[in-house]
Amino acid sequence: MYERHELIIGGRPRPAGGAETITVVNPATEEVVGHAPSATPEEVDLAVETAAAAFRESPWRQFEMEKRVAVVEAMCAALEPRLEEILRLVTAEMGVPIKASRALHRDMAIGSVRHACAAARRIAVEERRDGQVQALVRLEPTGVVAAIAPWNGPFLQALYKIVYPLLAGCSVVFKPAPETPLDAYLVAEAFAEAGLPDGVLSVVPGGPAVGERLVAHPGVDAVFFTGSTETGRRIGAVCGANMKRAVLELGGKSAAIVLEDADLAATLPGLTSGAFGNTGQNCAATSRVLVARSRYDEVLEGLAESARSLVVGDPQDEATGLGPLVSSRQRDRVEGHVAAALADGAVAAEPGGRPDDLPRGWFLRPTVLGSVDNRSRVAQEEIFGPVVCVIPVEDDVDAIRTADDSAYGLHGAVYSEDDERALAVARAIRTGTFSVNGFLLNSELPFGGVKASGRGRKYGVEGIREFMEIKTINFARSAGSFSMR
């Protein structure tokens, strides 16, 4: 049992003053994993005020980039001995299979920190330029960042949501999702051990009310949010009205395009991972598969067979490929989408449903739907569960048009044996990120969306520069004889 009775304010534990407690439930067993406090409005204000004071007075924002990188690398080293504990905790919090947890919350999570440090070293904080006058162009930290994470990748999200603004020189107030608040404490403890100056990092768990107070707080200069498009729109409106930066990674309904020359044996693993990885609880999921009509039946049956082969069960078991949905409410929502799609005329090549041998936990087997109209609700709305729609297309032009016929633009993929043809399709799709012949989430290079999938980028140099402002310092004497008297 993981019991937390404190908040982290400015890097230090502080006993929680509120009566409200978050109960974390294991979605595979429906047993309680632990508890964490929910921050009160006054505690949120204190966290922001502490961060703002640290931004004004702490040496953190004045540190040279290499010194900030050294603290982040020391944090990573402090986490290393506890990684297996963290993996097991994340699996208990949200149900991701332990094998996938190692890939996401060890390899990719720690890898993303190392990539962030490498990117930071490539940033020129000052650059002298010649123009009408000589000038110095500087990159300076934005200020206090409210970083708000979703539940579908808690440890990974905590790391990059904290690390990228910190490397920019900002102070951070981090709000983990109420479903998965516990691992964030371990990140904060590792930063304290690494020597992060007091005041720079706070952790305030809580639900929507805590997030709303953070976003609206006048002491917050930027918001770094991952979550639903609906919530992202509300955050964007508040930030726009108050001239705050907003980096928003929102929903997706990404398309994987299978051209008629694709090697199906090589393609199916990418389609399966893209549709069902993390039990489909992935904003970048390729949950629409657009297939050349001549290969449609073959791909539909291949995906159905892949879905049937996935082991659904105890996420702590090394053999498990698909864990539970995060909550009973989420499972009900996914089942409702599938029922509505079947009523609209979709046909289940693999019907999914609740496994008979798993009476406890919020499990669903993966669903593969054929005969889906791309304009139907199941093909247009983000489901966030193990459901994939297979849609026939006539040619490359039709595939591009159908992929773009969506409010979203976060991710996508194309499968073809012709690299130039695949690249032409990739260039044509209106989306923020894309993969050729695979399903890839690359934490070395910028990731983000267009349209209703958000704005801004995480990862890479671009992910750090999101939290830096440009200042131009003009040297008036270099203007020669021009003067005003």
UniProtKB/TrEMBL annotation:
Catalytic reaction list: an aldehyde + NAD(+) + H2O = a carboxylate + NADH + 2 H(+)
EC number: 1.2.1.3
InterPro entries: Ald_DH/histidinol_DH (IPR016161), Ald_DH_C (IPR016163), Ald_DH_CS_CYS (IPR016160), Ald_DH_CS_GLU (IPR029510), Ald_DH_N (IPR016162), Aldehyde_DH_dom (IPR015590), BEACH_dom (IPR000409)
CDD domains: ALDH_AldA-Rv0768 (cd07139)
Domain BEACH: 1-71
Transmembrane regions: none
Record-stated family: Belongs to the aldehyde dehydrogenase family.
PANTHER family: ALDEHYDE DEHYDROGENASE, ALDEHYDE DEHYDROGENASE-RELATED
Protein name (record): aldehyde dehydrogenase (NAD(+))
Organism: Actinomycetospora chibensis
